[in-house]
Amino acid sequence: MKPFTLSLGSLLLLALFLSGGCSEDDDENGPMGSSPPPRPDTVWVSSVSGEAGQQVKVDITIRNSVAIGSVEVPLRLAGSDFVIDSGSYGGGTFATAFLKQATINAAEKTVYFIAAHAPSNSVPSGTSHLGSLYVTLGAGAGNQVIAVDSAFVPVGGNVYHVVSFATPGLQQILPVFRGGEITVAP
Known about the structure:
CATH architecture: Sandwich
Helix content: under 10%
Radius of gyration: 17 Å
Number of strands: 16
Number of domains: 1
Strand content: over 45%
Structural class: mainly beta
Largest sheet: 8 strands, mixed
CATH class: Mainly Beta
Distance between the termini: 43 Å
């Protein structure tokens, strides 16, 4: 078995953050009134419903226990007859980040969110909206549940992107991940 390593890009993002701080986290609830997460650092993907031929919006929410400067969230969708249209940081805590990408691999049915703030603009601890994933359901997509789960997105060789946060002080955090789903009506 080959050893597991993080991408050079991930390590370079961590190196961008040389200063930062923490703020008090007084948010005890998860997104949309759900139960508190099992530990403070969590990534949630919403569950939505739609019909064949519609576009649906899947929200991604994060909770971080300390200030963070970057985030990586690789996702994989499992199902049939759908198209991943786009990923957006609009209205989210990384909307003004100097680096933000949502890279789609249609063949693998993956989308890779990566974003980084400048050290002076880190995200304080708490719960916030990271971004959204837009998916169009095909005409034959009815009567299925499309799982939205985390993924190991290959960079090359045995190097992968994983769900992670990085603090301004270069500490990597591996948050709990809670997947979502798209329920398509018959």
